[in-house]
């Protein structure tokens, strides 16, 4: 018994013995550590000095910040930190990753914070925004109530000043061709990027030739109080409507459900998510709706009529003039802009709104040529109220 215990005891005894034995080399180790520390310090100083000389103080400060700030906050993140949208809209997500992320939606109805719903203005453009000065004026003073997203040709380099509401609002973009699925992809990309901000509630697709027809308060109220989303959708029995339907689209799409409508939509958050997450209809349209079936005129109107027909108003909010005939709507240039024209656009119609009638039918109008900017700026206060 004892012989078994003894080695254990011996072992215990050996521990302090070893410690006392090692007591002498310890200062040497400390010294080694100290020297190593010194070397590291010197190396760090040299690298810092070099960075500051080479790249300026800013970048050195930035790296220091980005290294230390998260450490401080990491342990106590508030909800507002979690849901705060990224200031930088550029990201490296693929469409597949982006659409997946954007399809998240809360399952608890009430927000545990005071949510101020915003309008997401989504510009689908080739490049420049000639009416930026008009939009700037329209948006002035309403920063908490809107967000801007721009999808342009990937090669386009925007040139907005830091003070502009359009500065840094470009989203990762790809080439989009009118009438092809790539244009719907671009629209989905705009929706998905805008969905990443939980406060965006109304999503409006606009082009570079669009202008707002009322002041911000009127437009915000109109959207907020509407029971419906504004997606143009009608059953066109002719060759340019049902004529573009293919039987192969059944059973997902029956010809009686086939719709046509303007590309320029307004949808609420719920419908935006249903568009972004759709794969069922997407496959059918991608395969069977090719020119002369212009997919941007059919995909969203048909899909939303099937999935949410009772919550869309079946009309677009964007006024356009087809009265001149031909395949393209009228474009208004400098000489066309008169108070009479604008008054006709603003009050020329009555339409249904929440089961009643309203003299406000369109909130935006197209198509305007860049040359019309100056007369529009001159008349905007009188006829549009901004
Ligand atoms: C986290 O933040 C809250 C609110 O700011 C504060 O009341 C709480 O004491 C903090 N907790 C820790 C562990 O720092
Ligand atoms: C960008 O804008 C500034 C001022 O608005 C102008 O001076 C400059 O020439 C522009 N650059 C390009 C490449 O358009
Ligand atoms: C916006 O226009 C409406 C109607 O013209 C007007 O009653 C309202 O005062 C305007 N709001 C602002 C902030 O200018
Ligand atoms: C479309 O629906 C109608 C009834 O609503 C039905 O009679 C018809 O067979 C359907 N067509 C296709 C292609 O499924
Ligand atoms: C829009 O059209 C659908 C059918 O296509 C219909 O069920 C719905 O009631 C219409 N919406 C409004 C607001 O009239
Ligand atoms: C719209 O309705 C009002 C009142 O019902 C009417 O006075 C007006 O003429 C109508 N406007 C148009 C363009 O039909
Ligand atoms: C509009 O009218 C339809 C049918 O009359 C009704 O079901 C619906 O609830 C009404 N919507 C609103 C917003 O009043």
From TrEMBL:
The keyword Ribonucleoprotein does not apply. InterPro entries: BC10-like (IPR044174), Glyco_trans_14 (IPR003406). One of its GO terms (molecular function) is glycosyltransferase activity. Keywords: Glycoprotein, Glycosyltransferase, Membrane, Transferase, Transmembrane, Transmembrane helix. GO terms for cellular component: membrane. The chain crosses the membrane at residues 30-52. It is found in: Membrane. Its main location: membrane. The keyword Membrane applies. It comes from the Eukaryota. This is Core-2/I-branching beta-1,6-N-acetylglucosaminyltransferase family protein.
């Amino acid at each position: 018994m004892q012989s078994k215990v003894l080695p254990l005891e011996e072992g215990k005894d050996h521990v302090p013995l070893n410690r006392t034995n090692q007591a002498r080399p310890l200062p040497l180790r400390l010294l080694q550590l100290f020297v190593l520390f010194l070397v590291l310090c010197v190396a760090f100083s040299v690298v810092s000095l070099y960075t500051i000389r080479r790249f300026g103080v800013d970048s050195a400060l930035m790296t220091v910040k980005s290294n230390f700030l998260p450490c401080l906050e990491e342990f106590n993140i508030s909800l507002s930190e979690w849901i705060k949208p990224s200031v930088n809209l550029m990201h490296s997500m693929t469409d597949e990753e982006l659409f997946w992320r954007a399809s998240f939606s809360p399952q608890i109805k009430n927000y545990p914070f005071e949510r101020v719903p915003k309008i997401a203005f989504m510009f689908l453009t080739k490049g420049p925004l000639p009416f930026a000065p008009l939009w700037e004026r329209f948006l002035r003073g309403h920063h908490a109530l809107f967000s801007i997203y721009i999808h342009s040709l990937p090669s386009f380099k925007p040139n907005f000043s830091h003070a502009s509401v359009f500065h840094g609002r470009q989203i990762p973009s790809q080439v989009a061709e009118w009438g092809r699925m790539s244009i719907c992809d671009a629209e989905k990309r705009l929706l998905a990027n805008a969905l990443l901000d939980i406060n965006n509630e109304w999503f409006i697709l606009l082009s570079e030739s669009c202008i707002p027809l009322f002041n911000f308060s009127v437009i915000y109220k109109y959207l907020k109080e509407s029971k419906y989303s504004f997606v143009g959708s009608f059953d066109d029995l002719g060759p340019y409507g049902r004529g573009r339907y293919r039987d192969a689209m059944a059973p997902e799409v029956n010809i009686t459900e086939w719709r046509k409508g303007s590309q320029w939509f307004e949808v609420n958050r719920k419908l935006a998510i249903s568009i972004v997450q759709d794969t069922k209809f997407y496959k059918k349209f991608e395969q069977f709706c090719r020119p002369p079936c212009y997919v941007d005129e059919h995909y969203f109107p048909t899909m939303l009529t099937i999935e949410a027909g009772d919550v869309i108003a079946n009309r677009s909010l964007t006024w356009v003039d087809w009265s001149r005939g031909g395949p393209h709507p009228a474009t208004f240039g400098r000489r066309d802009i008169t108070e009479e024209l604008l008054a006709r656009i603003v009050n020329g119609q009555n339409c249904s709104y929440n089961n009643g009638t309203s003299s406000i039918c369109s909130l935006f109008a197209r198509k305007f040529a860049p040359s019309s900017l100056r007369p529009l700026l001159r008349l905007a206060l009188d006829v549009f109220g901004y």
